[in-house]
Specification:
Keywords: Coiled coil
Number of domains: 1
Number of helices: 3
Largest sheet: 3 strands, antiparallel
Helix content: 25-40%
CATH class: Alpha Beta
Family: Belongs to the UPF0381 family.
Pfam families: DUF406
Structural class: alpha+beta
CATH topology: Alpha-Beta Plaits
Protein name: DUF406 family protein
CATH architecture: 2-Layer Sandwich
Length: 94
Amino acid sequence: MQTKLEESKTCCCVDVGAIIDGEELVASADELYANQESAQARLEDLSAKARRAESDPCVIEHSFETQEDGVRLRASFTFCNQAESLIFQLGMNR
């Protein structure tokens, strides 16, 4: 028995220039953790991922804010180009 495949009449294409315009160099994280140690561990993990994505040094800025419900990590990662920022963002949750 042969199965006939039909060509899709819709296009799921996007112009790359609509996604990567070269302007988005900064990736950010704003996350809440139970304690300082967990927040610090996450910062170290994100920093290592940024270092793997960078070609030129990524500028990493961060702060920890103690709140009633835990410790908030705020971090920004400024890359030299948008492709690196995108690669980093795609790997943030792995």
